[in-house]
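The freezer alarm interrupted the setup, so I double-checked each line after restarting. Inputs confirmed:
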Amino acid sequence: NAGVTQTPKFRVLKTGQSMTLLCAQDMNHEYMYWYRQDPGMGLRLIHYSVGEGTTAKGEVPDGYNVSRLKKQNFLLGLESAAPSQTSVYFCASSYVRADTQYFGPGTRLTVL
Amino acid sequence: AQSVTQLDSQVPVFEEAPVELRCNYSSSVSVYLFWYVQYPNQGLQLLLKYLSGSTLVKGINGFEAEFNKSQTSFHLRKPSVHISDTAEYFCAVTDSWGKLQFGAGTQVVVTP
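Predicted 3D structure, all chains:
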């Protein structure tokens, strides 16, 4: 039982490049979330999904897109990376809303 | 909308001493409250949560927290810390919709 996994663990991009972060969970959770963590700001919600085929905007969605084609996967895309997107990205999932979220190990992204 | 304030950004503490991490929240509706811990270079994991019932909540690793509705607080305590408790601690609040709002975090540094 791997829980929540994230790919890749580290990535360096140049400004304007694109990339996709993959989150996978094997707990059959309906709800999935993408956060970014920046020093002194805690975690901020980027996008979330309440089930396969659904996505919704969180607190800081600009510059990101997401897709949930399969229940177990939640993809976060950056179409044109900017230095302001340098951050640590965490994926999380939960069985029901308003209850415990289970977090992946994070992806450290640097945009030069 | 909810907000969370963690009153201390860093708390130094000696091994075997008690520690209290302060968390205040604001919300116009009923809330659910969480404390998560993040060890260096890892994702977040749940320490404890308050959903309903007893206002004194016990979590893992000897931590406990008390929900005080009148003071809108959810302070975290441990009577005797270990070196291994060195980590960053996040208070979070959500309403029934399930979108977590995190505080900025409190870094606990335990020294011998």
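Quick read of the result. The CA atoms of residues 86 and 110 of chain A lie 5 Å apart.
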